[in-house]
Design brief:
Blueprint lengths: L5 E3 L2 E2 L5 E3 L10 E6 L8 E8 L2 E9 L5 H7 L2 E7 L5 E7 L6 E4 L2 E10 L3 E3 L2 H4 L1 E3 L3 E5 L8 E6 L1 E7 L2 E8 L2 E5 L4 E4 L1 E6 L15 E7 L3 E7 L3 E2 L1
Length: 234
């Protein structure tokens, strides 16, 4: 018999003696919409903000060995990445928000419920395969269903200009390399905590990759660019 499972923070539930009884449904996240009421006009207008709300994925599980309860509690705690066996190609960013009471249903078999508060977009599980190294002007293809917010490391020195589609991103006084993290809106060398470089980033917005093809080019003092594209799906 092949059990259903999930992977939370790199640990397979089956390795913890936890079986997922039923895969959670695939849910289209709710859009964050502003309702606008106009005096003297029937109904309401809706303004699409372009972003989505978190939602809950709920799974029912059984624990095959009640002696591992404390170990399971320590594992199923807080924030992390989760992959469900029903969607092996995607990873969700999630927070476990419920208390997880474990009920004894049979001798040495216990059932419980996990509620994952998930970020509305899911990501590619194949980060290694998606990783890109670029040494010349090129086009890349966003295979997701939403714009992506990449992590881009630019190798070069001096004042650098990066072009993504029709947008220009300017970096000044670079030494060896610098990383642009579009999702977190941070610029750093090695890590935000150790070496923030936000003062060297002279553009208002951060790079995004549209759905489909995207052009990338850069100034001559750039030797290469490494990209974690962070493809996303609703």
């Amino acid at each position: 018999m092949q059990y259903q499972y999930f992977v939370f923070n790199g640990i397979n539930s089956l390795d913890m003696g936890v079986v997922m009884l039923k895969a959670p449904p695939i849910i289209k996240p709710e859009k964050r919409v502003k309702e606008i009421k106009i005096e003297g006009r029937n109904g309401v207008l809706h303004e699409d903000t372009g972003v989505y709300e978190n939602y809950t994925k709920e799974i029912e599980c059984i624990l095959l060995d009640k002696n591992r309860i404390n170990e399971v509690y320590a594992w199923l705690n807080g924030y992390g990445e989760v992959i469900f066996s029903s969607e092996k190609d995607f990873v969700y960013r999630a927070f476990i928000k419920n208390q997880i009471p474990i009920n004894n249903i049979l001798l040495n078999i216990n059932d419980f419920l996990i509620q994952f508060d998930v970020y509305p977009l899911k990501y590619s599980v194949n980060k290694t395969d998606d990783f890109l190294v670029i040494t010349e002007d090129t086009e890349i293809y966003n295979k997701g269903t939403e714009k992506s917010e990449p992590v881009i490391t630019v190798y070069g020195s001096g004042d650098i200009t990066l072009f993504v589609n029709d947008n220009e991103y300017v970096l000044e006084g670079i030494e060896d390399y610098i990383t642009i993290d579009s999702s977190n809106m941070e610029v750093y060398k090695d890590s935000v905590e150790l070496n923030s470089q936000n003062n060297k980033y002279k553009s208002r917005d951060f790079p995004v990759f549209n759905i489909g093809f995207n052009s990338i080019s850069f100034s001559r003092n750039v030797s290469k660019i490494e990209i974690e594209p962070e493809w996303r799906w609703i």
